[in-house]
Specification:
- The chain is an alpha+beta fold and about 475 residues long.
- It has two domains: about 40-205, no CATH class; about 215-280 and about 295-465, Rossmann fold, CATH 3.40.50.
- Helix content is about 15%, strand content about 35%.
- The protein has seven helices and 29 strands.
- The chain has helices at about 5-25, 260-270, 285-295, 345-350, 395-400, 420-430, 435-450, and strands spanning about 40-45, 45-50, 60, 65-70, 75-85, 90-105, 110-120, 125-130, 135-145, 145-155, 165-170, 180-185, 185-190, 190-195, 200-205, 215-220, 225-230, 230, 240-250, 275-280, 295, 305-315, 315-320, 330-335, 340-345, 360, 365-370, 405-410, 460-465.
- α2 (about 260-270) packs parallel to α6 (about 420-430) and α6 (about 420-430) runs antiparallel to α7.
- The chain is globular and about 60 Å long.
Amino acid sequence: MSYKLRVFTLGIAIMAILLYAMYWEGIHATTAKEIAVNDDLESITYGEYINIDQNTPIVDDLLGNFIVHDNKNGTVDVQVKVKNSSGSLYKLYKNIPVVWNYMEYPNGHKIIIGVDLIDRNQSFYGSITMINDTTGKISISIIDDGQYTFYGFIKNPLYIKRSNDGHVKKIAMTPAKEDEYEFIKGKPVKLLTINVSDEIVYAVPDYDTSRHNKTVIMTNAEMSPAISNGIIQPNGPIMPKVCGIIEDEYQPNEREYHNIQSQVANWLRAGGMDIAIYRDRPSRSQVLSDIDYYTRIYPNDDSKTRILGAFDLEGHGCVSPGYTEPDRDFGYIDYSIGVMYIILHPEDVSATWQNHGDYYNTPDSATVYAHMCYGIWDMKDANGNPVSSDNPEMARAWVDYGAYSYTSYSIDITLFLDNFEDSFWHSLIEGQTVNSAIDAGILNQNSKDPSNRLNRGDIVVWGNGNSKLLL
């Protein structure tokens, strides 16, 4: 064989190997006739890695990229390659279902709230909101050797074939302008208009492209010398960790009036809880991942077991005109454009409680508190019409599966409740029951801020009001 022929043959072989590798990396060429949905390498704009299984919990920045590939069958494959200062995650997640969450007019037209890419069996949580008619903002949270959470952008996510519909809100009437919607009365929002496969849909705009979660972990420094963050030294057995999570969706301008939630994690830690975590404006995927990650019981490995002792939801009860349910979805408000964004539905919570073989998820022993309007028992719809409600969905999504209690409000509440929450949490940490902690909180609120009084009937406990916080 001649030298030139050998070189040519070697070149062909190398090219074949590279093409084969590209195939297994999940990078696929897009033909000219296809819409360029997502076969592009996307760099993450912000990322965090968390590992609480070490003696000293880790919070580290993430760098890297990802690819989302449309399988054209209602699922996507997601290739992830990210790294932090101590390790990396390089993995292909296959056949992740694509689900639309939307509101629907009587004429069948849809307002897309977001797109979910969720597979609990793979511990993969993704959520997408629309920035404009061709670009979405994506947040992905993955559970592996810890929690990997990162943000980026994705092209034409509504063109990805969906597997089914998720949470659908029925709207009572079609407005005069379908491309405008009032999430907040008197502040109509101009919706994005998108033609998806010859169907006109509308989408809630998300212009806050820099918004991302920021996490602070408090570890228990008050434990005996034999114990470090719930890990007993070789003289004793390894113990499960009891964790407290604060999911704070309030915006910076709102925290001028309500900011005590950022201190609750410190109080829980000082009170004896092994790990307390404060999430500053987490994404939908981050909250879903937290409910999964911090409720895992490993019957054969206590070192991996995490018991959710406290779960604090700080945000808004989100509802839309003409839509009624026993209690509201949890989310946040972007006042600059007047939009409510949904972070958590009741069915998101109840779907978590599954057995996965080597571990199972349970909210057993959790004390749940939700600072949100009509977090329980909404007695009227958004149009002001009275409704009968004896089935609080968000509360039952926790308590029916083992949580000690779920505490929230039966009214539209004010932001000015720092005095209530101060005494409420301190009383729980001191060993008082939930009912006693509520009474202490109301007394402190009404004595220090009588203009924002609370009545005992404004606060409802679903579950065992005589239960105590697990520390």
